[in-house]
Amino acid sequence: MNFCDAIVTATERHPHRVALEVPCAADDYQSSKTVSYTALLARASSMQHGLLAAGLMQGDRVLILSRPGIGLYALVLALLGAGLVPVLVDRAMSRARALAAIRASGVKAAVGDYDILRLWWLLKPLWRLPRFALDGEGVGVRRLQQPAITAASDFFCRSLPAEHHGLITFTSGSTGVPKGADRTHQSLIAQHQAIREHWPELDSDIDAPCFPVLVLHNLCCGIRTVLPATDLAKPGAANAPQVARQFQERKVTRLACAPAFLARLVDYALSEQLVFPSLRSVVIGGSTLPEGLAHQCQQVFPRARIRFVYGSTEAEPIADVELPQLLQDWHNGEGHLVGTPARMTEVCLVAPGRPLSTHQEVQNARVPTGAVGEILVAGSHVLAGYVDNPAANQASKIPRPDGLTWHRTGDTGYLDDDGRLWLTGRVKDTLHHNGRHRHPLALEKHLDALPGVERSAVLQDQDAHANRLLIITAGYPDTDALTAALKRLQVTEARWATVDSMPVDGRHNSKIDRERLRDLLRRNKLKPQLLALDQAKPGKVVGHV
Question: What are phi and psi of 96, to 5 degrees?
Answer without folding.
Answer: -60, -45
